Amino acid sequence: MNLPKIRLVSAASALLMAMILFLVPFGFSATIMHSLWTNTAYILTESAGVNGTLLGIFVACYLYTVQEIGFKNKMQVFAKAMVGLIAIISLFAISNEYLTKPYFRYQRPSHVYVLQKLHLEAKIDSLYQLPKEQRALWFRQKIQEEAKKFAEINPMVLEHWLNEAGFSFPSGHTFNAFLLACIFAFGIKNNSKIKQWQAFYFLPFLWAISVGISRVSLGVHTLQDVCTGALLGILIGNILLTIDHSRHWITHKKQIT
């Protein structure tokens, strides 16, 4: 059975990511100027952002169509998969932004860092009373006023901090990565046309792990944020691959083998 293998590898990948982040001090390691790791971490994190996730959804939908026969049938399966995945990921993003994160109200590490640099740590509670847009504007103005204090931070990373002005828990990027990794792995493992690909079904999870590490390295999330995002992504991904109706609706197959 391929699905139990994917469940096992997905759980193992989340555990591996947690162990790496617990043992290695990645926090804020991808923030300095002229750093290959900073550029790499930024690319990784963007691969699970809005545009990267849309591309990932496109690839996942293509994988669903590989074994379908006929152009019309392929397009029908592709369209159904596209609508379903966009709806699920969008629903999570909206509920995360407007329900989950405001409920837990976890502070972003990048916000704490900026306020420490400005010696304004005491203002963090009052800042989180402001709407997200006003909070982002406040941080932008303060960083511009005290530009010398942030001279060592890559401008690309600073801009990312300003764009990520909301609460921290859980990580939406990591959720996207692990959810898509489950679907990529299933598509690769069940690709009977190119059998030599099947042994590499674990590779999407290496990408997902890298995304989680990049979020911590850029200073926008904590270990707890990315591990929770990963577990939620794995949970939803495996539900999509398990529920009979969803599986049949997307793949036109009656049984996962």
What does this structure look like?
- With 257 residues, the protein is mainly α.
- It folds into 2 domains: 186 residues, no CATH class; 60 residues.
- Helix content is 70%, strand content 0%.
- The protein is built from 12 helices and no strands.
- Helix 1 runs antiparallel to helix 11, helix 3 packs parallel to helix 9 and helix 9 runs antiparallel to helix 10.
- The mean pLDDT is 89.
Sum this structure up briefly.
The chain has helices spanning 2-23, 36-46, 50-65, 71-104, 109-117, 124-127, 132-145, 155-163, 172-189, 203-217, 223-242, 244-251. It is mostly helical.
Topology:
Elements (H helix, E strand, L loop, with lengths): L1 H22 L12 H11 L3 H16 L5 H34 L4 H9 L6 H4 L4 H14 L9 H9 L8 H18 L13 H15 L5 H20 L1 H8 L6
Helix pairs in contact: 1-9, 1-10, 1-11, 2-10, 3-4, 3-9, 9-10, 9-11, 10-11
User: What characterizes the major β-sheet?
Assistant: none
User: What is the number of beta strands?
Assistant: 0
Fraction of helical residues: over 70%
Residue stretches low in confidence (pLDDT < 50, at least 5 long) are none
Mean pLDDT: 89
Number of domains: 2
Order of helices and strands: HHHHHHHHHHHH
Outline, from the CA principal axes? elongated
Figure out the total of helices. Answer: 12
Name the structural class.
mainly alpha
How much of the residues is beta strand, in percent? under 5%
Task: Report how far apart the termini are.
Answer: 5 Å
Radius of gyration: 20 Å
